[in-house]
Design brief:
This protein is 60% helix and 10% strand. It is α/β, with parallel strands linked by helices.
């Protein structure tokens, strides 16, 4: 008993200890969680503190700089005042000059002091924030220290409890040996507890990692939330559709409920009938049972045996009947219960439906009407916050409607409050209404309409106030306020849906009809009013803009003369025999006296005369020429459609008709033997799109051809297709079928904008008759045909015509061939695993360690290189967010390219959670652009400018193109004005600073007379110039935000509504009468092409029209013609001037030995461009022919479906990745290794460019079944790096490191990441001598040794022997055995030690020799490199490219850009295998 009691006591003590231990463990976990949280907070605060320190330091530096600048300006001011005082007595003229100088200095001083004060204020704020952050950090540290002490105490207490527990267990063990098994169990439990504790600690670590990941995800989620907020704003336009769908669903639901009630009532009726039948059966069975019993009793009295047996049998029969009766009664009872249940359900459902209807109908009615008061009353009569048993299952139907009503109520009240707040001050005073106020009011009004609110019903006073405010602002800005403008405003305010319309559109519409109501304007205003009445507000901008253009041509239609048109055609094509032949043929078919219609003596504004003209056009066979009659039908239907839309006669002018006839003669007639394409030069605004649509229709309806129309701008191709879509719908093909007119857009735009439009598709439909596309769609159409297998390209393209709007797609600059990539599923899964590991914090070697095959190892290394590349990318420069905001896309040559693929892009999308997997692609097809375009039966181009002589020569050589010019429309009209842009001079400044000052001065000078448009050299400078002009405008006391308008590509991509507003305002005047001034707009080269700067003010036209200021004359004549096309449009005047920075052309001046003078600057620069184009085309000649050969092989491989064999796929990846480094002979040898391919049977037009060395390119099929997926192949490469080690490399101006240290680290990174095990690497350094750090050495097996040699390079010392260093590197590569040779050279100064080749003559001579087969990359560091040195480096790169190799010159003007330069080197060596994915 004592032992038992002792055992019980020990057990109780043990349990008490267990509880204490659990309590301590719980407290320990809680304290650890708090500690972790505070650790994270402390880390965050420490990082914030460090950042703030940097900001404070930067601000201190800015303040010091500002103070220094202010002090300098004060001193200059004092000197100027002193000089003024001294010279005042001597010269009054000088006095005025010095007053101007003092005024300028005072303005600069005021601006500097303002900036200084801003910097001081910012510094003080940052100091306060820094102090608060420091205090918070100190407090958190104190709390953290207290928690650490508490945790330590808890741990000690826990350890004491553990010791006490162990002691108790030992005592129990000694006292109760008999209970050893139980004690062992206790110990096992204790061990499990310890394990749980360890697991919990491990869980804490996991939780810490999860917390870190969650914080990362939180940032991503915040970004996604912001994106969703933007999408929410954009998605409000579809609310009406969703509301309609919801109402339709509610109607369907109500119908379903009624049907369900009817079904239930039918079931009740059926069950009632069944009950009656059961009652009848019951009565019948009861009667039968009674009869049986009666007979049984009667016969029982007889007593005979036979009677007894019969009675028994009948009694048994009665029992069966009784059983039947009982069963029927049970069934009856069951049916009765079901009947009662269903009846209860029906009654309940009716009750719920009635309650739901009572709630839903008023809310739905209020939402339908858009009446805020009605909605408020409907909501207030409903109580949905508590229990909703009275709705039953219909609660799930009612609640969304109720919630929607609540949301709309809050939204509508907020919008009305906003509008009342803005409108209030204007109703009580004559204060000026700003553009921002109008924009805010319009946005609120638009939001109200899109969410379904009716302003008239909700608050009629606000609707009236909006109309009055918009009209008042119009008059305030100098507008007329005529009846058409009043109607436009009224329609916009009353419109329930303004999707796609903003305040800028309203302003543009009002501007287009801003004419006084006088007799000479009555016709225009009446037509404008008809258009406004007949169209929806979102159509106003397009129809009113078109009206202005139509009236322009209509004004001169009766002055057009066909004979003069032919004279002008001959004049502009003088000496062009091919063009003159086509002109003569057109004149025979369409001669003077046989025009489409006779307009002489007719009133083109008279309804009867217009109807007579249309009837005349519809007479077939009038010209006795099938070609003209075919065009006549097209023109008739176009005129008919325009008549229905504008109530005006729209006819093609003679220049258009003759141009079409010349192009059709080329398409239909006997093709000139040496003419493979015909290109017409037609000026901007002369109606190219109408000519293209007419040609496409004729080819389709009369010739039975299919047509691809290429407009290489996504917005313009969409605009043109939608313009002529209705015209295409009026015709049938030659076979009598409806024409399939289609438009190709991006997959994103298709999903978001045209999801329900079957005629708009993301890729080319081979069955489409007229398809409007971009050049990239031609490429994908071609490669898709090639991949199908068995494609006969001659048959596929036999009846297809290619019509180009601008010939840029045909001109090849530096990329004549396009590699197409296709997914490797297995390696995509591995790449996705790498992405997951990267998100978990793994880097470099840890990622490589995940690879289990050679293919995966190469993917891992490419992945690491892609990560480094993606980290250097700049938003909107290297990549951008697509139009849907759902993923990143590449930016190529300043334009978004949704088809471009790269592993870096895939990684960036995956890390930012735009995709849930990484796609790993391989190059498996190379398309030569010219080869693809030449597949078409005919090529016709219409272009504003064909280009310079070199580009014309290229088009002639590759496409056998012929050209002709189309005269300007106004030159074919008698007694009509035609203005070319007038030159106001070219001004050449010595540096950028002086250029900018001169540009700004001239902009402010010219804005006194006319609108000013400045075209900067690129988008970054445009944005910076706009900021500087803004500051200067403020210093001049102007309203800078209004006067200076930014039209850079950056604003277009990130703030499209702001861009639209700026574009409209840019050409509008400020003020009225003699006080009228103009705005200054700043754009980049993209704004110099395709953008219409509409100038309609007669005052501006009298003063010379739009003033175009060009800061960089382009070297391509195509671009220069487009620039000048922004001014002097239609019958308006135009003018231009150029302000150039001489340093921008320093390299060209030195290279071509031609001075840049104001009088000949334009011709000189365009001549330089012509020469450079010639050099570029020569440099890509090798690339062109090698790519052409791979294209021919790619077609055959795809046609025979040979890539299903993994070994064949491996060979094709190697060819498509390395073809630029191979000769055609080597390409053929590699392709010969593919099973089933006879290379010799593939005909070729490719030519061998450069010498072909005898190299070992194995054509044997790889052994084994593993698919090698390297984009570089397995062939070893020789890589020699030549690095500057002169004294200047010690400069510590490379981001905290010396130039030498940063270069060394970059070389080490390339060695570890981008150099393969089979590659050979050599390293040379140079100072006063050239020294070999190590010769070409195989990486595999020597990694540690080579890494040590790179890390332990001697410190820089000496001068610069760069040219000899490069030559030594070339000698090492020449002695190497690899066929792929790379030289990477870096210097931060000019050569001053290469005595035998001071200008790199030996290197240049070697690169020109047949032995030169090396890829060369040269990096210069700093801005002090002489022009001669830069030209030498560029020349080396050009020579390498001319031999078909990689040639690249990378200037790192800032030492901190060294890492970025080496990133480009790494990308070339690693080869991300970027390419186009099929659309």
């Amino acid at each position: 008993e004592q032992l038992t009691r002792a055992k019980d006591e020990s057990t109780a003590s043990f349990e008490k200890t267990e509880k204490a231990k659990e309590r301590l463990l719980t407290e320990l976990r809680e304290e650890q969680k708090r500690a972790m949280s505070l650790d994270l907070s402390c880390s965050s605060l420490e990082s914030d503190c460090a950042r703030l320190k940097q900001v404070v330091a930067a601000l201190q530096s800015d303040v010091a700089s500002g103070e220094q600048e202010a002090e300098t300006l004060r001193k200059e001011l004092e000197v100027a005042e002193k000089e003024l005082h001294e010279l005042h007595a001597h010269s009054r003229s000088n006095t005025q000059q010095y007053y101007k100088r003092i005024t300028s200095l005072q303005l600069r001083l005021s601006a500097a002091e303002a900036r200084l004060q801003q910097q001081r204020d910012g510094w003080e704020k940052e100091k306060e924030l820094h102090a608060a952050t420091q205090a918070e950090l100190a407090r958190c540290n104190r709390i953290n220290d207290d928690l650490r002490l508490s945790i330590t105490d808890l741990k000690r207490e826990f350890e004491r409890s553990q010791a006490l527990e162990a002691q108790q267990i030992a005592e129990l063990d000694s006292r109760f040996k008999a209970e050893d098994a139980q004690l062992q169990e206790v110990q096992a439990r204790f061990a499990r507890c310890q394990k749980d504790l360890k697991d919990s600690l491990q869980d804490n670590v996991t939780l810490r990692e999860a917390l870190n990941a969650s914080q990362t995800n939180e940032a991503v989620l915040k970004a996604q939330v912001n994106d969703l907020e933007e999408q929410r704003g954009q998605g409000k336009a579809s609310y009406e559709e969703e509301i309609a769908e919801l109402k339709e669903e509610m109607g369907n639901a109500n119908s379903a409920y009624d049907r369900e009630i009817q079904k239930l009532e039918a079931q009740v009726s059926k069950l009632t009938g069944m009950t009656e039948l059961l009652d009848q059966d019951n009565a019948r069975l009861q009667e039968e049972l009674e009869n049986v019993r009666t007979e049984l009793i009667r016969e029982a009295g007889v007593g005979s045996e036979r009677t007894k047996k019969l009675a028994v049998a009948r009694f048994q029969k009665g029992g069966v009947a009784a059983l039947k009766l009982a069963s029927a009664q049970h069934q009856h009872k069951k049916q009765t219960i079901i009947l009662h249940t269903l009846a209860a359900q029906v009654n309940g459902f009716k009750s719920h439906a009635k309650a739901a209807t009572t709630i839903i109908k008023p809310i739905q009615q209020a939402l339908h009407n858009g009446d805020l008061s009605e909605l408020k009353a409907a909501i207030s009569s409903v109580e949905m916050d508590g229990e909703t048993d009275h709705l039953g299952d219909l609660d799930s139907v009612v609640r969304p409607v109720y919630n929607e009503g609540m949301d709309k109520l809050a939204s509508w009240e907020g919008l009305l409050t906003t509008m009342r707040r803005i409108l209030g001050p204007f109703a009580k005073s004559d204060m000026k209404i700003s553009d921002q106020d109008v924009q805010k009011l319009f946005t609120a009004m638009k939001e109200a309409g899109l969410t379904g609110m009716s302003l008239e019903l909700s608050d009629g006073d606000i609707a009236e106030g909006l109309e009055q405010t918009f009209l008042r602002h119009l008059k305030q800005e100098g507008g007329v306020g005529n009846n058409v403008q009043i109607e436009i405003i009224r329609r916009l305010v009353a419109c329930p849906k303004l999707q796609g319309v903003d305040a800028a559109d309203m302003a543009l519409c009002l501007s287009l009809v801003n004419k006084d109501e006088v007799p000479e304007n009555s016709f225009f205003l009446s037509r404008a009013r008809q258009l406004v009445d007949a169209h929806e507000p979102y159509q106003f901008t397009n129809v009113l803009s078109s009206l202005e253009t139509i009236l322009f041509f209509l004004k001169y239609l009766d002055k057009e003369d066909l004979a003069q048109c032919y004279r002008e055609y001959r004049k502009v094509n003088r000496g062009n025999q091919v063009a003159l032949q086509y002109v003569a043929k057109a004149e025979r078919n369409y001669s003077p006296g046989f025009e489409l219609v006779q307009t002489k003596g007719r009133d083109l504004l008279s309804e009867s005369d217009v109807q007579d003209i249309l009837a005349e056009m519809n007479i077939p066979g009038r010209n006795k020429n099938d070609m003209v009659d075919g065009l006549r039908q097209i023109f008739f239907w176009w005129a008919q459609l325009m008549k229905e839309t504008f109530d005006l006669l729209v006819l093609p002018h003679h220049t258009q008709v003759v141009c079409m006839l010349m192009c059709l003669e080329f398409i239909v007639g006997d093709q000139t033997p040496d003419c493979g394409a015909l290109i017409a030069e037609m000026g901007t605004g002369e109606g190219k799109s109408a000519v293209i649509a007419g040609l496409a229709l004729f080819c389709c309806t009369k010739l039975g051809k299919k047509v691809h129309v290429v407009v290489d701008d996504e917005n313009l191709v969409e605009r043109d297709f939608l313009t002529y879509r209705d015209l295409f719908a009026q015709f049938k093909t030659k076979n009598g079928e409806t024409i399939k007119a289609q438009l190709c857009v991006s997959a994103t735009k298709k999903a978001n904008k045209y999801a329900k439009d079957d005629d708009i598709r993301p890729r080319v439909d081979p069955e489409g008759d007229i398809v409007y596309i971009e050049a990239k769609h031609v490429q994908s159409f071609y490669t898709n045909l090639a991949k199908q297998g068995g494609t006969n390209f001659d048959a596929a393209f036999k009846d297809r015509i290619l019509i180009l709007d601008e010939v840029d797609a045909l001109v090849i600059d530096e990329a004549p061939c396009v590699p197409f990539v296709y997914e490797n599923d297995e390696l995509s899964r591995f790449a996705t695993r790498l992405g997951d590991a990267l998100l978990r914090g793994k880097q470099g070697a840890q990622l490589e360690a995940m690879a289990t095959t050679d293919g995966e190892l190469k993917v891992a290394r490419s992945f690491i290189a892609a990560q480094q590349k993606a980290e250097k990318w700049v938003l909107n420069q290297d990549y951008a967010v697509d139009s849907s905001g759902q993923r990143y896309v590449r930016v190529v040559q300043g334009r978004v390219s949704e088809g471009s693929w790269s592993l870096a892009l895939e990684l960036k999308n995956y890390v930012d959670r735009y995709t849930d997997r990484i796609i790993y692609n391989e190059r498996l097809f190379v398309m030569n652009r010219a080869h693809a375009f030449q597949k078409y039966e005919r090529i016709v181009g219409l272009s504003g400018s064909v280009g310079n002589d070199a580009e014309r020569s290229f088009l002639t050589s590759i496409y056998k193109a012929k050209f002709f010019k189309v005269p300007w429309f106004l030159t074919t009209c008698k007694n009509s004005p035609f203005y070319a842009a007038d030159s106001r001079g070219v001004f050449i400044e010595e540096d950028e600073h002086r250029q900018w000052l001169a540009t700004c001065d001239k902009a402010f000078e010219w804005r006194e007379r006319a609108p000013v448009l400045i075209i900067a050299s690129h988008r970054a400078k445009a944005a910076r110039l706009a900021q500087d002009l803004h500051a200067m405008a403020e210093a001049r006391g102007l309203h800078a935000r209004d006067v200076v308008r930014n039209l850079s590509r950056e604003v277009y991509e990130t703030q499209p509504e702001v861009f639209k507003q700026n574009l409209f305002k840019a050409t509008q005047g400020i003020g009225q009468g003699a006080e009228k001034k103009w705005r200054i707009a700043v754009t980049d080269p993209r704004g110099g092409r395709g953008t219409d700067y509409r100038v309609s003010d007669p005052v501006a036209d009298q003063n010379g029209g739009l003033m175009l200021i060009v800061m960089h004359i382009p070297k391509q004549s195509r671009d220069w013609v487009q620039f000048l096309g922004r001014t002097a449009r239609q019958d308006k005047h135009g003018q231009w001037l150029a302000v150039l920075n001489k340093k921008d052309y320093a390299a060209e001046i030195d290279k071509f030995k031609t001075p840049l003078t104001p009088g000949t600057a334009v011709d000189t620069i365009l001549d330089w461009g012509n020469k450079e184009t010639t050099e570029n085309l020569k440099s890509v000649n090798g690339h062109y022919h090698r790519g052409l050969r791979v294209n021919e092989i790619s077609e055959r491989v795809a046609a025979q479906k040979l890539l299903e064999d993994p070994a064949n796929r491996e060979i094709m990846v190697k060819i498509c990745s390395e073809y630029q480094s191979l000769s055609i002979h080597q390409i053929n040898m590699l392709a010969g290794g593919m099973q089933g391919l006879d290379v010799r049977s593939i005909p070729t037009q490719a030519q061998e460019v450069g010498a072909v060395k005898s190299v070992d390119v194995s054509s044997r099929r790889p052994s084994g079944s593993m698919v090698v997926t390297s984009t570089q192949g397995t062939a070893p490469r020789d890589i020699v790096i030549v690095m500057d080690r002169s004294t200047s490399m010690l400069s510590k101006d490379a981001g905290g490191k010396s130039r030498f240290e940063l270069c060394r680290d970059c070389i080490l990174g390339i060695f570890n990441t981008n150099v393969e095990d089979q590659d050979h690497l050599g390293l040379l350094t140079f100072e006063s001598q050239v020294r070999e750090s190590f010769p070409l050495t195989k990486k595999g097996g020597n990694e540690s040794k080579l890494t040590g040699l790179i890390r332990n390079l001697p410190n820089p010392d000496g001068l610069t022997k760069f040219h000899d260093g490069v030559m030594e590197g070339l000698e090492r590569l020449r002695a190497g055995s690899s066929s792929a040779k790379y030289l990477v050279a870096l210097t931060d100064g000019d050569d001053n030690m290469s005595r035998t080749q001071p200008n790199g003559e030996k290197v240049t001579e070697y690169l020109r020799s047949p032995d030169a087969d090396v890829h060369i990359i040269v990096i210069t560091v700093g801005k002090d490199i002489k022009v001669k040195m830069i030209e030498t480096c560029k020349q080396w790169a050009s020579l390498a490219k001319a031999s078909g190799k990689v040639g690249l010159y990378i200037p790192a003007d800032q030492p901190s850009e060294i890492a970025q330069a080496f990133t480009k080197v790494a990308a070339i060596i690693a080869d991300d295998a970027e390419g186009e994915a099929e659309l």
